[in-house]
Amino acid sequence: MSILILGLLIFLGVHSVRIVAEAWRKARIAQMGEKGWKGAYSIASIVGLALVIWGYGIARHEPHALWTRPVWVPHLAGLLTLAAFILFAAAYVPGNHFKAWVRHPMALSVTLWALAHLLANGTLHAVVLFGAFLVWGLVDFAAARRRDRVEGVVYPGGSLSRDVIPVVMGAVAWGVFAFYLHARWIGVSPMG
Fold first, then answer.
1. CB-hemisphere CA count at 13 Å for 105?
2. Residue 12: which of 133, 112, 121, 113 has the closest Cα?
3. Residue 192 banded pLDDT, cuts 50, 70, 90
4. Which tens digit of pLDDT belongs to each residue from 116-164?
5. Which residue from 73, 91, 77 is spatially nearest to 141, judged by alpha carbons?
6. Helix and strand totals (H; E) in the chain
7. Dihedral (C-alpha) 175, 181, 186, 189: value to the nearest 10 degrees?
8. Is CB count within 10 Å lower at the N or C end of the chain?
9. Dihedral sign, CA of 141, 145, 150, 152?
10. Cα–Cα nearest to 53, from 188, 186, 189
11. How far apart are CA 55 and CA 28, in angstroms?
12. Nearest Cα to 102, choosing from 174, 41, 166, 38?
């Protein structure tokens, strides 16, 4: 479990710099240059993610059950992850209503993904992993919305034609992952 926690501290710590130390982040970018900052950020993120994956894999060998999920939870988790995939795609498609409405669809995507997995997995290592991502997603979403208010950021309205793109992209990616890749990569078939 210690490798999983170390990985989470590194990965989520790097992704929290803008939340807790924006002035320090800007100073590092000025000092290192944008490419240098992005390079260091990427390396730290990759190391953290690798440790999370490794640590979670180790922890899965000796699971400590905290609860048994109800029979209906996989269906709810499927809907939540479908919404998460659509919101994730919406973060990269300009001019859609999702971005106009929630402003930070990626943070909300991570939150929904983590909630779905937290509900569907009742082991200690799952609670640590998905609980950490859920808390981080909520904090990041709130911090980003607060930063927008302070900076007076206004998001332009979206168009229905631009909404179709993230819905289709997200639904297709979700379908491929839920029905094929999740079982191959994670070893669990979420749809039965």
1. 24
2. 133
3. low
4. 999 999 999 999 999 999 999 999 999 999 998 988 888 888 888 889 9
5. 91
6. 9, 0
7. 50
8. C
9. positive
10. 186
11. 30
12. 166
Structure tokens at 51: 């440790």
Q: Which amino acid is at 184?
A: R
3-class DSSP assignment, residue 156: coil
Two tokens, residue 9: 């501290």
Nearest residue to 15 via CA among 56, 36, 39, 44: 44
Residue 45 tokens read as: 């993120």
Residues written for the chain = 192
What the block records as the tokens of 158 is 């979206």
Under 8 Å between Cβ of 49 and 42? no
